[in-house]
Design a protein that fits this description.
Blueprint (H helix, E strand, L loop, with lengths): L1 E3 L7 H13 L4 E3 L7 H12 L16 H10 L11 H16 L1
């Protein structure tokens, strides 16, 4: 099993290469999007799936990322260099994008 944190790869081609290598070698690939496993997230999913709250036609989701996250990632991480990492929006919001996708 290969467990990847985000970002899985820097470019789409990087991701495709990782997937292909895992398939060729029979390796299970998992990406660590952990928000979907929180009790509140699974409860929201159950409410949506059951129809208890009606048809969901819009989700407004806020991720209050503080300035200190960006400062820390820039100074101590790779956020200053997109050749080594992903851009800040993807780095900080990929979990939220996965969560909305999981609910829908």
């Amino acid at each position: 099993t290969l467990f990847r944190s985000k970002p899985m790869g820097i470019t789409p081609e990087d991701c495709e290469e990782i997937v292909a290598a895992c398939r060729e070698n029979g390796v299970m690939l998992a990406v660590g999007h952990v928000l979907r496993y929180l009790p509140v997230s699974t409860q929201i999913k159950e409410l949506i799936d059951s129809g208890a709250i009606g048809d969901v036609v819009h989700i407004q989701h806020l991720e209050p990322v503080g300035f200190w996250h960006f400062a820390h990632s820039f100074v101590r991480g790779n956020a200053r260099n997109e050749e080594e990492s992903t851009f800040s929006l993807m780095s900080k919001s990929c979990h939220d994008i996965d969560l909305v996708n999981f609910w829908m």
